[in-house]
């Protein structure tokens, strides 16, 4: 089963980033055949037998308890998102995700009403479900002209030259956010065939996506700041907030962007979003 191979790969990647001295273990000798912690060392830190941990890492998950998962997470110094990911891999949750999420009229009206502040609605696959004119303007792209299957942040960040050019100053961070979010979402929704198809498509289409995916890093997205370089107004430093929409099946969040008042970015955003131009700025 795929989850069992994923849990082994994830645990090995987390062991590899820790050195014995990082966790207070004494190292005897200098020759170590594996990077990071050995299985025996991790089992000692977690307070479980070596045989039990080896079976866990190999995906033999029958009757593994939450307390064991928590002990391993503490030993590996996992952050909350990584801890949740490990639980998902060990005890895959069941979710029914609609293939075609629908946007309520009231939500669509809200997205339109906040213009000229950039806003869009994003689904669980990083798919952009609704947007306003200002959101299209800041990324210098016509969302409406992009086929539904390709209107995802995975496609846009890794495969769309226009978006890559605008996001160049912060591209590594944005790309990593997309991949680590999808990795976390995939473990939370193991039966989501559309999500797994998206990942398969992206790993085949982008070497950069595939490299990031194989690191097994995971992280959710809630807020942050992006630095854009827009071809018409120059630099934009924009804060964003994810407002989760748990009552809307298939919909992840309403995402709102803003610039700090009184800054050059605020002036540039105002100039860009108040222009009488089409969404892609053509």
From TrEMBL:
Signal peptide: none
UniProt cross-references to InterPro entries, sorted A to Z: Cro/C1-type_HTH, Lambda_DNA-bd_dom_sf, MLTR_LBD
Residue ranges occupied by any HTH cro/C1-type domain in the UniProt entry: 36-83
Superkingdom of origin organism: Bacteria
Pfam families noted in UniProt: HTH_31 (PF13560), MLTR_LBD (PF17765)
Gene3D superfamilies: 3.30.450.180, lambda repressor-like DNA-binding domains
GO molecular function: DNA binding
Coiled-coil residues: none
Protein name (record): Helix-turn-helix domain-containing protein
